[in-house]
Amino acid sequence: MHDFNALVSSKDQNDAKQIRALEKAGCKKIYTEKVRGATTGRPRLIQMLNDA
User: Fold this and answer.
1) Residue 16: enclosing H or E segment and its boundaries?
2) Which of 4, 8, 44, 50 could form a disulfide with 33 if both were Cys (CB 3.0 to 4.6 A apart)?
3) Which helix (H) or strand (E) holds 6?
């Protein structure tokens, strides 16, 4: 099983294409985040790493 963090850099961007590609590649658990470039906090990435 693979976990993956899908990321888009603005709230206007859509992560659906990334999610479909990750599901097609066999990812079972996908963590998504929408963050700006200057953001240092990545709560979903930290959650993914803690869940691993």
Assistant:
1) helix 16-24
2) 44
3) strand 2-8
Cα separation, 9 vs 5, in Å, equals 13
DSSP states along 19-47: HHHHHHTTEEEEEEEE--TT----HHHHH
DSSP label at residue 14: -
Do 18 and 34 meet the contact criterion of CB atoms below 8 Å apart?
no
CA 43 to chain centre: 10
45-50 average pLDDT score: 83
Q: Evaluate whether 18 touches 8 at the Cβ level (below 8 Å).
A: yes
pLDDT for 51 equals: 85
